[in-house]
Amino acid sequence: MAATTSSLRRLALLAIIGFFITVFFLVQKPYDGVSGSSWSQDAQSEDESSREKTPLNPDHIVPFVPETYGPPKDEILKPATTLLTSVKLAKPTNIPSHSPVTADVSTTAPSEPPAQTWSWEYTQGVIKSWVKTWPVPAIEGHWPPYEDYRDEDYDPNLWEGFLWNNEIYINSGIRLLVSDGEAELSKVEPYMPYPAYNTESWQRQWRGTYTSCEGPRGKLLNASDEDIIKAYPALPTGFPSAAIGYTNLTGFSVDAHCFDRHHRYGPYGFGQGEREDAEDWQEPTVRPDWTSVNWQKLQDKCLMKNKDRYKPKARQPPVLKPGKDLPSKLSSAPPVPQLRSPDYHSRTAILVRAWEGLPFGEDELQNMRALITELSLHSGGEFQVFILYHIEDENMDIWKNQELYKDSLHDLPRELQSISILWNSKLCHEWYPKIGDCNNFWHPYIPLQWFSLTHPEFDFVWNWEADVRYTGNYYELLDGVASFARNSSRKYMWERNQRFYVPSAHGSYEDFLNSTYEAADRATEEGEKSPWGKNAWNDKAQRPIGPTPPRSIDEDDFEWGVGEDADLITFQPIWDPREVDWTFKEKIWNFLPGFRPTFTEEDPMAANFRHSDFGKIPRRTTIGSHLRLSARQLYAMHLENLAGRTMAAEMWPATVALHHGLKAVYAPHPVWTDRVWPAWYLDAVLNANRGEDARWGQKDDSIWVHDRSHNLAGTSWFVEADFPKTLYRRWLGLRRIDGSPLAEIDGKQWEDEGMTIDLPVGENGGEQEVRVGGHGRMCLPPMLLHLVKDVYDEAIPQQVSMPPPPPAEEAEEEGAEPIPFPNERGRI
Ligand SMILES: *[C@@H]1O[C@H](CO)[C@@H](O)[C@H](O)[C@H]1NC(C)=O
Ligand SMILES: *[C@@H]1O[C@H](CO)[C@@H](O)[C@H](O)[C@H]1NC(C)=O
Ligand SMILES: *[C@@H]1O[C@H](CO)[C@@H](O)[C@H](O)[C@H]1NC(C)=O
Ligand SMILES: *[C@@H]1O[C@H](CO)[C@@H](O)[C@H](O)[C@H]1NC(C)=O
């Protein structure tokens, strides 16, 4: 007995020591790893392993662990919503009566509330009553802490109590397409979303002749079906719609096809050499030895076969080691492309960011093969894919010493070495000494500037992260997004860029544009000035390179900018950070001459660096680093950096576009959610604006405030999202355990037989045992997924029992029937 007690004590002591060591580690870490941002670029991904353990937001002493937005991993077994189901839902408090709509809503208790007609105050009242009634899970270690919001008028965790979007998994098997009754739907076909090359209408638009290129199987791609991904010509009935974004963004409908893992990745080695045959899939007969495929050679040969389609200066294979000398001829901005027909096609470089220690597993390699084949080889060289490989040691002379260069290159998988370009921060020190520091965490776009200025043959550059996946064809996505951005007007583009499109709340995309523009009109009448053309902060210091508007904004009927290629394309909204509690908004270098943050070991994030004049500097932010930048955009960023001016990475490209009068477009690609959100609530949270016209995301209630951004953790596209990891692994037939009723689905058993499970049914709640799954491999629409990593099969952990949830507070009953909080017991 005594022995047990003392060993328990020893354990407790060890635990305490461990805790202090951990805290010490957490406090120390941000400086070495400089992976401090909750949201930043590759610095954040550059040190993924430490990121998991580091306080991501340096402002928090409490570690912010993005992985655990649900219950902590080892306690997950009885997930949050299961807890909810066992709680008797308390009666919500009454709804505020200052809104004229109250009476209406309360008497009818509508199943789909007519949210568009709600006043802002009324909406806030309902949200507040939900905050009070939601039975907060009794789980510690969650960020943001569950218990912190009881007395607030919002709760960034509330969505975790909504119904799970189980239909994504239940209504997505390939066998469902056959049982839908039409045999044609089960017929998988090659998926080729490319222009009708060499046709008459194509030739009216483009110069030169498209010539088919050789693929990794050594055959011309027009004669090798095995190099082409295939799709089913429908989406299974009942697959949920995207919650956010424009399903026709690319010009191809998202609902018309679906992709399963074998037909999407089969051409790139998925299932290669597997013993068992996969249902309804033919393994390619030509099985390349992938390690010996020379992707650079294939891409260069492809370009040369198609070279008459491109500008004379783009008719040479790109140089992989351009050196770090500033090109001497650089004196003016890249010319603004003039629309001509027929014209030379533009060339776009995809720069996939990599660094020492970034793991490249089989899944990463298949994704790289997809990027190269779909974007570059099938298009005859419109794109070219590279790895931009960061060497951390800035003193390593990779610039002159060929041996060192070679040695470093050899740390990458052999298959990728031929397309890799090495760089280190020596570049920044030599090109931009006036900035004052050269940390890639703050300045991740400098190597893109270097690439662009030394490769004028490329009109555009995509900054691309290795942890993104697309279930469809990459060309369809990137060519479509470019076309969407080209078609967008400049009038009210900054307002449009701030707002999420929520189809269930806003109606058609045209309705969305209409209501966005009307709000912008009202804001203008209230005295707000919509940016139009150049907006230099300091006319003397900055020389904006963008075009002068052809007419005033009032005279423009959404014409200016239509047909003009965008200088900046983002996959998340672009918003004004000045009134938002967002961590890095004060990180501004040398806009006030000589005033810049200094980072020291004691103060690694320059936490108190600010200036009262910063509020006057117009700026814009976008979270996430998947951006397309034009040569003109990168040139403007180069000019600013030469003068020493820069800002935190999230603010920098969009702010330069704003100051220089360049065209910036947020591309509202379709995004799914892992919970079923009421339309009005999704709109209210994503487009929070303190009730002010056209100020979406830029007030103190912005979705981009550090705790509120947790609302995006259950979406398929967010740097801290968890959902994509689950979805992607299950699509690959692997298990990933989340907190949903379908937590434990895995490949084989789920796909072949299915399982019996308790699911909510009907309008009024209640659960029923339902047989789900057994419909074959998951088949998904084209989805852009971020963040995807750790692609492996997860084991089912040992069951542990959870403490019972706390009794929900009894709310007093008063007045009208309130809008019930939707949970697993019932939908509203
Ligand atoms: C494939 O493309 C090549 C080069 O453009 C062409 O010569 C050949 O006829 C094409 N083959 C098929 C089957 O279309
Ligand atoms: C999407 O595009 C298709 C085909 O062009 C069109 O029929 C459909 O109406 C579009 N949908 C929306 C929501 O715009
Ligand atoms: C852009 O406009 C052109 C010309 O009207 C049209 O053909 C194309 O489909 C549009 N692209 C997108 C993505 O809507
Ligand atoms: C929005 O639609 C209404 C009704 O069709 C129309 O009168 C109005 O001009 C539109 N507003 C804008 C800004 O397009």
UniProtKB/TrEMBL annotation:
Residue ranges crossing the lipid bilayer per the database entry: 12-31
Region (Disordered): 36-64, 306-338, 523-554, 799-828
Alphabetized UniProt keyword annotations: Membrane, Transmembrane, Transmembrane helix
InterPro entries from the UniProt entry: DUF3405
Protein's name according to its UniProt entry: Uncharacterized protein
Organism: Zasmidium cellare ATCC 36951
